[in-house]
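Project standup — Tuesday

K.O.: blocked on the structure for the chain from last sprint. Re-posting the sequence here as requested.
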Amino acid sequence: MKFLFLIILGVFAFSTLVAQDFVIRNITVFDGDKVIENTSVQVENGIIVKIADNIKTDSEAIDGNGKFLMPALTNSHVHAFSALGLKEAARAGVLQVFDMHGMEKYQRQMQETFKDSTNYADFYFAGAAATAPGGHGTQFGFPSPTLTKVAEATAFIDERIDAGANYIKIIVEPWRETLSHYVVKELIEVAHRKNKMAVVHISKLDDAYQVLSNGADGLVHVWWDEPITNEEIEVLKSKNQFFIIPTLLTSHLALQTIRKSNPENNFMSNEEISSEVKKLYDAGIPLLVGTDPPNAQINYGTDLYKEMELFSKAGIPNIEVLKTATSNPSKYFGITDTGFIKEGFKANIILLDASPISEMKNINTINTVWKMGKPVKRN
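H.V.: unblocked you, prediction finished:
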């Protein structure tokens, strides 16, 4: 534990640069909702102050001709155990990450220490995920609180809130010991009474259907075992508003091993799992991209591009894929000043040399990343 904290302190460095005042001219902009052609974006003191065709200012001018400007990216499912992950994310233009289970003491320290640091992603966390003794989440070598009874739910949620959790994560994983749906339902209801969102780890469709029926705000994985019907989706939509973070890259990589070690069990193919995500998109279910690093040796930065490419290959329009990595995470996690290029929003933005609207692989062409109007170091 002390070693991890030393890593955090050892790599910490605030940027001493003053936020730049600049204008990017003649640029194609994806603002989080739509594409605006041949416009200009003005930044002052780290804030987007104007978006217009003709901006008169003495600030530094950047030529955006032939380039593409969009909000910085968000990874909606990570496990960050040191600031190194936040730095790796920022270098790739991922300036916001949502942690889904970890060591609460260090999570709060990372959030507070790196909140205003240019070269590190902003960090939000669930604290310790709710899980059963011996359940998923207890096998990673650090203490993880557990519960088994409905009566323990309120105390568990209160402890996470006291630890600074921004939202609550719950685990339903029948490959190990797992929580009953009675306990999960109570956890969701208590979280809501405490004004906290509750998201749930699942791997099976039946569990997904049950937790969403019980009011979960979102799923942090998509199921692996069988396809959902359009009728089931419509029933769920009638009961509850929810989003899904499918973690396709994680599913594809992890199942390579799981299928071999569990040949008697039924798992959908990678193509079938991707088809589930397209089915959810077609039904109007909000989607967010997340990659679950460091599981399956996934990194905190550029591997998010792979997730976005998988969404695109699944048949989701590229402009909608961009929303899953920008405006959707901010919207559904309640972050009100990032995720869009709009007046009054933070200048957390990325400049690309080619448009990902025409080809999603162009997300790899990042030219410059700004956090609060300051350029992020990328090497």
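K.O.: great, moving the ticket to review. Confidence is low (pLDDT under 50) at residues 1-16. The longest strand covers residues 35-44.
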